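Proteins fold reproducibly. Take a sample protein:
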Amino acid sequence: MANTGNGDLSFVSKLWQAADKMRNNMDAAEYKHVVLGLIFLKYISDAFSEVYEDLKKTSKKNYADPEDMDEYRARNVFWVPPAARWPYLQKNAKQPTIGKLIDDAMDAIERDNPSLKGVLPHNYARPALDKQRLGELIDLIGTIGLGDKENKSRDILGRVYEYFLGEFADAEGKKGGQFYTARCVVRLLVEMLEPYKGRVFDPCCGSGGMFIQSEKFAEAHGGRIGDISIFGQESNQTTWRLCKMNLAIRGIDANIQWNNEGSFLNDAHKDLKADYVLANPPFNDSDWKGEMLRDDVRWKYGTPPAGNANYAWIQHFIYHLAPTGTAGFVMANGSMSSNTSGEGEIRKNIIEADLVDCVVAMPSQLFYNTMIPVCLWFISRDKKNHKFRDRHQNILFIDARNMGKMIDRRHRELTDSDISKISGIYRTWRSKKGKYEDVAGFCKSATLDEIRKQGHILTPGRYVGTEELIEDSEAFEEKMTRLTGELSAQFEKSDKLENEIKKNLKGLNYKI
């Protein structure tokens, strides 16, 4: 996994390799909870120890008690009882009872910290979990962040947790996509939407990657954790737990709801109007129970087909946007052009309502769970807003299919410069002061009339055209003379090399 804007991760890669060796025959989906649970335990223990040592130093001056639970709650730090503190667990890592000690630690932390109730993984004591390897894993995780004064242990643990999520998604393949969106895709969405302040909503939030990057963006641009209010929903309980731990490691307070029914049948944030919606919903979901929601208030632009949830998700996002809100989300490419089961009519109605801001065609092989080609949609509820150029009744199309680089045989990743180029052109187009220009083969600002002529199809390739070729100033006869001369020289070298090889082989009593 390449490093994309997350600092030097070489040590994390080595850590992953060491941890993965301990997996033995355990399935990655099961091992994921073992490892990530321990990383979380190390995080809250380190955070606790930092405050504990500070209270010990100042206890005589301000009468603070290092064992007073309220002292930690006042500093927004989880209280960790003695039997759950990392030094105690590491000291007993080689004991055959270590599995039960960890389970007891998780129970004690959930008991004393109500916000973690039902979140932490248990069952470390199960017989199938090799206790020797569990002890080795504790020793390995115990090395994270130790003695690093410049980088707080908690920040390092956050990076490790995020990196491991990606690696487990890779190891799980298709199932991994249920909880993880490639970080470069999330970064691009965030860089384009620019969520400085306000309410950020993801109704299919997975492990919380959209929220992490939103907070990072706000902090990088002079904001603080807390400038953004986080709202999310997840229908998979184990993924919800990963999300809660991921956000807790980052110190992010969030309203993340879980229920089995999911966002369509049981919208946990029914009254929320968000400033930003960021999401990567399941592609082409045919089992979303659409037949039970035929007259739902969210289907303002048309009733989505029961056999495909794509336009249900799009309208769900629009429904939850504030009057000046914007949304950025991942969709299967079919959403841009499908005319089956009324989808074309829904798309037409959304376009004619002047809600679509930008569409980006993405490169292949960016996702762990699917080879389906994808695109990014950007929706804006207020394109006439005075902050922006006169861009209502226009849609920006970006063709990024040839961008990115292969990081292994199966996966591609957008580079920092790719992300800057795509997000930069979008911001320039949105800005009143920006000097936007179409670039053949890459981007095109199309009018509503142009889009109507294309039957309201949103495929960027229809609008951006082809890249302009650099004119070759060398005359054909001159070029052929030069190239044949070069080829002749190469043939001559080839003949000499062939004779030399034959001569050497003959000296070894081999004849060709």
Remarks:
- The chain has a mean pLDDT of 88.
- DSSP finds 17 helices and eleven strands in the chain.
- Residues 383 and 392 are 5 Å apart (CA to CA).
